[in-house]
Amino acid sequence: MNRKFYNRRLKPGVERGGRTRSAISLTKATDVLKEAENAWWGLSEVRKKAARSQMYGFEDQWGDLVIDPASGKKVTESAYIRSQGKVPLKNNVIRPILKNIDGQFRNNQTKPVCVVRDKRESKIGEMMSIAIEYCHQINETTEMDAASLTNLMLSGLCAQRVEYGMNPAKQNLDVWVYPTNTYRLFFNTDIEDPRTWDLRIIGEMYDMTLSDIVAAFARDKTTCDDIYRIYGDHNGATWADSFGLQGDQNKNMDFYMPSRPDLCRVILVWKKESREALFCRDLLSGEWWYSNLSDRKSIDVLNKQRMEEALANSMDPEDVLLVEYTYSIEQYWYYRYMTPFGDVLQEGRSPYWHKEHNYILNIYPFVNGKVFNFVDDFIDQQKYINRTLTMIDFIRSSTAKGLLIVDEDAFQGMSREQIVDEYVRYNGVLFVRLKQGQNIQNIVHQYNGSAAVAGDYELLNLQLKLINDISGVNSAMQGQTPSSNTPSSLYAQQVQNSSMNVKGLLDSFRNFQKKRDNKVMKTIQQFYTSARYIDLAGSDYSKESKWYDPEKVQDSEIDVYITEGSNTPVYQMVMNEFLMELYKNQAINVKQLLENSSLPFAERILESIKRDEAEMLQAQEEGRMAQLQGIPSEVIGQIRA
Predict the structure, then answer these.
(1) Of 345, 421, 431, 599, which is most buried, counting CB atoms within 10 Å of its CB?
(2) What's the rounded Cα separation, in Å, for the pair 40 and 624?
(3) What kind and span of H or E run contains 203?
(4) Which tens digits make up the pLDDT trace of 270-283?
C-alpha cells in the first residue's frame, strides 16, 4: 500500500487559492532552495542503487521488477515465479559478508590521539585526546560508526554532522555528532575529488514536529506567529501507521513533502558563496584575512602610523612591515534553515573556527566522478545462487519420487485399492502368480527420478566460491575450520591476506573518522570556554591531563591521528604480559604494575595498597610527634589500640 502523503498545497511559495505565503519577519531564498532540490534529484540514481543493495542485503532478494509475458505488466520476480507454480527460494549470502565486516570493524576499535606540533606542550595533546574521547562516549560513536560503515557498503557514501548546542534527547549543551540519512542528503554531483574538496553545496532534509520547529527557530513572538502561519496545516496533526520501522519513508521520499502528514519539512542548505573583499596580509605578524572594501581607509591609516613610528626611530622606509592588501573574491560557507516555501528560518556565515560546513562526507569507491557501492559488485552472483536453488527445487518437485508400476493381471482376485493398501502396509503380503519368463521386477517396480540435473550442485558451489572471492570475505576471514591437511602456517597466512581485500574499504572509513574527529576537535577548541574536569575510566591518561584548560588549548596547533584502541582483548593481553615481564625482572614495582594493568581487579588491589600505605604513614607521623613531645612509644601503642 502506497502511504506517501500528497499535500497539494505544499509547494514552494504557493498557498490555497493561488495566494503567496509570506512571513513578515522571514526572508526568502527560493533560488537557493531550487539549487538544493536539483542537487537532491541529481543523486536519484545513487539512492536507487542503494535501495537495491539494501534489498539484496537485508530484504526481499526477488524484488526486482520484470515484464510478465502473459500480461505485459511489470511484476516482481517473486510474483512471476509464483505465477509459474514455483516457490522463489533464496539463500542470503550477502548478509553474512556484511556482518563479518561489521564484526571486523567492531573488533578493531580505534581511538583519536592528538599531537601538538610544539613537542614541549605534549600535555595539551593529551588533554585534547581526553576531550575527544569524552565526546565519543557521550555520542556513542561506536554504534553510529558501525551504522555509517553499513551505509557506506550499501550506497558508496556516508555522512555525519558535528554541532555544538543543546541536545533535546540528552538535555545537555555539548558537542554532538549526528548521523545523516543517505536518502535525505544532497550535494553537488559534479564533484570529482575523492576528498570532496570541490563541494559547493551540501545539506539535508529534516522532518520535525511543529512544536520542535517553533522551539528551535522562534526568536520572538513575530517569528513564532510566522512559523505557525507557514506550517498551520500541521498544527495538532496526528498519524497512525501499522508499517512502522519498515523504511517506507525512504522509498517515498520527496524534496518538498514530509514523510508523514503530522511532520513538517525543514531543509538545511550549506552553500559556498562569494563576495568582493580585500585580501590582507600583515607582514609584521604573518597573519592574513579578508576585509570589507570599505576598510581600505582604516588599513591605510594603520600603515601610515607604522611608517611614522618607523621614521621617528630612523628606520629605512623600505624595511617597514606594512599590511598589504589586494582586491579579491572571498569564498565562504553560508547556511540556511529553510521551509519548503523558501522562507529562511535561520541563516548566517559559518560560525565555526574551521570556517567550513559542519558535514563530513565520505565516498568510496569513487573513480572519475562515479560512485560505486560494495554490495552491488556481487548482486549478480546472489541472483544466480537463488535461481539455481529454485531450479533444483523445481526439478526435485517434478521428478518421480517412489513411483510404483504394477502388473495388474499378476494379482488375480485383488482390486487396485487392495494392492495399494497391501503394498504400503507394514508387514504386508501380496500373492503373485508369475508367468513363464517373468520375474518380480517385471511385476512390481518402483521408480525414483534423478534429484537434479547433473552439474547443478557444482554450479551452486562455484557461485558460492565466486561471491566470497569477489567480496574478499573468504572462509579464512570468516573463521571457518580449514581442511585437515591445511598447514597452520598456510592458514595463518590466509587469514592475514584475507583482510587485505577489504583494507581499502576500512582505511577509507578510518580516514572518514579522522576528518570527523578533526572537526570535533576544532569545535571543542572553540566552544569549550571554561575549565572542566573530564573523568574517563581507565589508566591511559594522567590526572593532570584530565583538567581541560581552554586557555592552553585554544591557541595550540594540534594534529589528530587515528590509532588502534587499547580496549581490544589482544592489546590488553599483550600489555599485561609485558608488564608481568617487567615486574619479574624488577624493572617496576607492584604499584606501577597495577596502575598500568588492565586486569579487572587491579584497581581494587591498588586502592588497598594505597590505604595501607596511608595508615602506615599516619602511624609513623603520630610516633614522630609523640617522640618530640616526650610520650613513650608504649603509651602511643595503647592509645592506638
Answers:
(1) 345
(2) 80
(3) strand 201-208
(4) 999 999 999 999 99
